[in-house]
Amino acid sequence: MATVGYSQAAEEKIFAFRLADEEKREALPRLARYFLVRDSAHVSHIAGTLAASEMSSVKGAHVDATWSLVRRAGLDTLELLQVPASTVHALMADLDAAISSITKKVTPQARTSSRIFSVCARTAIFASTTAPGSSMTTSW
C-alpha cells in the first residue's frame, strides 16, 4: 500500500484551514457546528484522492480544488440549517482567507494543474445545475 505525501504548501494550507475552521466554527449555532465538524478531514481526504488520481503527492492546488467542493457543501448545509447569511458569509470569508494566505507564498507554477481545474469546473457546473438559486463562489 502506497502512502500519499504532502508538499509544504499543502501542509500549510490544511493546517491553516484546520485552525481557522476550529476557531470560527464556534460562532455557529450548535447544530451547524456538528454538521461542519469534519470539514478539515474532508479537505485532507479529498485532496489526497485528487493527488492519488494523478499519482503524485498532495500539492497546494489539490487543497485549493478541494476547498471549492467542501466550501459549496458547507454553504448548502448552513443554508438548509437556516443559519443567518451574515454569519455564513463571515465564516466563509475567514476560511477563504486562511487558505489564500498560504497561496500567496507559493509560486504560480506550483498552483496550476489543468486536471484539477477541469474537475473543479465540472463540479461547479454540476452544482450550479443541481442547486436552484445557488451561486458557486470560489477564490483562486
Walk me through what this model shows:
The structure is a single chain. With 140 residues, the chain is mainly α. The chain has helices spanning 8-25, 30-36, 39-54, 60-80, 85-103, 108-111, 114-130. The protein is built from seven helices and no strands. Helix 3 (39-54) packs across helix 4. Residues 106-140 have low confidence and may be disordered.
Instruction: Extract low-pLDDT stretches.
Output: 106-140
- The secondary-structure element order is HHHHHHH
Beta strand %: under 5%
Tally the beta strands: 0
Distance between the termini: 33 Å
Question: How many individual helices?
Answer: 7
Radius of gyration: 15 Å
Secondary-structure class: mainly alpha
What is the makeup of the main sheet? none
**How confident overall, as mean pLDDT?**
76
Apparent shape = elongated
Helix content bin: over 70%
Keywords:
140 residues; disordered C terminus; elongated; 7 helices; 73% helix
Quick recap:
The protein is mainly α. It has seven helices and no strands.
Could you give the topology of this structure?
Elements: H1 8-25, H2 30-36, H3 39-54, H4 60-80, H5 85-103, H6 108-111, H7 114-130
